[in-house]
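Protocol step 4 of 6: structure prediction from sequence.
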Amino acid sequence: MKRSRIVTRVLLSGVSVGAFSACGVQLPGGGSVAAISPETYYANDHFIPGAGYYHAPFRAFFPLAYNHYDAARRQYFYGGQWGAAPHRSIVNVSAPTPEAAAAAQAMRTDISRSGFGRTSNTHSLYS
């Protein structure tokens, strides 16, 4: 039974990457994913590496899942704040604000950024 869940996840992720390849960002191993934009709708708790979890009622990405419960604090996290009770909203799909989309796109860790390359692994003349 566990095996079929893994296969389902792999197949679903392959389908989603294929669906986004037409207008996406290049991945390090080839393929592409869609850029985060204010025109893209995300489901609540959608996770993007580096950007975090999307909180649909707040139209932004955050480091913790929507209504994440911290037992030490005895509070719930939603929309960048902590509360004594979980946040309730009928909004479960939305598009990020332009500012939130730009910030999340800049923080992504699942894409390869081109530029001058890495210089930290080069040899030093003084070694």
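Step 5 (inspection) to follow. The first strand starts at residue 24 and ends at 26.
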